[in-house]
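Saturday, quiet lab. Running sequence design on the structure tokens for the scaffold JK sent over.
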């Protein structure tokens, strides 16, 4: 096995490890929140002037979109999410950079965490509530955070790091270069 293949294997395991860590932390945090609100007489807990802990049920996808998708909406969202997670898993297996494997692991772990909620409750448990001047961002959870961070990492890599690699760094300068002293200018 070459060093590059071994490094890729380690990166993939890191991606799967991140997916597992996100999934476990997401489910534990939701379990704690459900326990907190099972006996709570109040609808939210103020943590800071801009951050509350709430209990919200999201039947849709991001920002509650498609929350009223009808009788089979949950099934459609579960199947769609599992199909996307499967595609991302294939991508993770083929990923060539550590950043990609971390990002894909975060997205996969978050997606599966939210699918578990849909199976258990028919909705995703959201509880993080950020607000400023009376305007509240839609409540979200650990899984949602991991999905967003993973997506940003993939975009960052695609936009700013896609041409960089340790093996081709100066390759563009070696092809077609003339030897010093030739009469062509560089």
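Result came back. Writing it out in full:
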């Amino acid at each position: 096995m070459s060093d590059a293949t071994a490094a890729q294997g380690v990166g993939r395991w890191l991606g799967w490890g991140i997916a597992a860590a996100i999934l476990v932390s997401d489910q534990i945090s939701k379990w704690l929140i459900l326990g907190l609100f099972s006996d709570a007489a109040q609808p939210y807990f103020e943590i800071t002037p801009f951050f509350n802990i709430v209990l919200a049920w999201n039947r849709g996808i991001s920002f509650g979109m498609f929350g009223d998708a009808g009788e089979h909406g949950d099934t459609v969202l579960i199947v769609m999410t599992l199909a996307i997670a499967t595609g991302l898993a294939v991508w993770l297996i083929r990923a060539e950079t550590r950043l990609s494997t971390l990002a894909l692991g975060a997205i996969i772990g978050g997606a599966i965490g939210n699918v578990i909620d849909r199976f258990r409750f028919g909705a995703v448990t959201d509880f993080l509530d950020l607000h400023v001047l009376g305007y509240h961002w839609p409540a979200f959870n650990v899984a949602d955070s991991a999905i967003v961070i993973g997506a940003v990492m993939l975009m960052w890599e695609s936009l700013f790091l896609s041409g960089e690699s340790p093996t081709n760094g100066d390759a563009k300068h070696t092809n077609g270069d003339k030897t010093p002293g030739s009469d062509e200018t560089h």
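Notes for JK: The beta strands are 44-48, 51-58, 124-132, 135-136. Residues 12 and 101 are 6 Å apart (CA to CA). Ask whether to fix the surface positions before the next round.
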